[in-house]
Amino acid sequence: MREIKARILSDKVRELFIKANVKLPCDTAMRIKEACETETSGAGAAALRVAVANLEAAELNEMPICQDTGMAVVFCEIGNEVHITDGDFEEAINDGVRRAYKDGYFRCSVVADPLFERKNTTDNTPAIIHTRIVKGDKIKLWAEPKGFGSENMSKIKMFNPSASRQDIIDFVVDTVKSAGGNPCPPVVIGVGIGGTFDYCAVLAKKALTRAVSEGNSNSMYAKLEEDILSALNETGVGPQGFGGKTTALGVNIEYYPTHIAGLPVAVNVNCHVARHAEAEI
Fold this sequence. Notes:
The protein has two domains: 2-23 and 65-146, no CATH class; 148-273, CATH 3.30.1330. 39% of the residues lie in helices and 25% in strands. The chain is built from eight helices and ten strands.
């Protein structure tokens, strides 16, 4: 049994959320820069150049890439030989989020009561925490600050199991087309396929923690990712909705077994500021 102090976990969460909010993953940033050279729309290309300047300024000045520093989402894989000492696991994560948003001077956007009072918690907690117990003596963490301009454009659909591959493509494309410029395209799309109504949404969220340059390990799903990306970039939505051929930077799919009677599909939309960071303890 390996003992890990709660403070170590908290410190790592703090580090990850500061990093994620200030520096975009290199592969995503590179795709934005490359799109500046290939975008055919003048207005779209100009929007992409502004996005690149913003990324560079954020990293240079250690400031948030976007004013919406998101709701903190954390994915955790905890080894079954790990024992957390000197504190509570979830409180350690929330403490790390709390300190990250305070120390980084990030906007706190979480309200305690979602419907009636909507009073700000003032420290961006509680985080959304998804936990799995796995073999081993390590903890792996993925930090994902999720902005809601894009989150609000996300959709879920319970398809009949007879739905075709093209039906799935059309659903993702229709989701992005109906969103237009609202999610600050070019977007990064996470797609969850399978599981249950709730779990396919978790899969879509987890898909957004994978690098856009890393295709699905299953060749059939990797090809589906490529085909959806191509279809999205033929919609003409373009950067910031100004038209052009750069509507999406990447499509990541995660899948899971499901019931014979169903085919759940979730589309989690992310803006071009597709922030995530990961680490292992």
